[in-house]
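Standup notes
- DV: blocked on the single-chain target, sequence here:
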Amino acid sequence: MKVKKLSGKVQDAQQIPTLFDNENITYHPINIVNWKEYPYQPQVSFRIAYTNDAILVHYKVVEDSVRAKYGEDNGSVWT
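- DV (later): unblocked, structure below
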């Protein structure tokens, strides 16, 4: 996998999908299930790039049931 370097800074995480679209950064699948006891596998892919200041990752997930309780960056998603 080749990871592209992007010029400039990203000011807001919401910019990343559009930036990746404009730069033609492709998705890579995550399609491994590590536990035989839990065979459910959502459709997951990601794309990645970097700048001088950051590693940027954009995930795309499709699954049967999703719960989104926290919608802000750095929210307490572990609670």
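- Follow-up: DSSP finds one helix and four strands in the chain.
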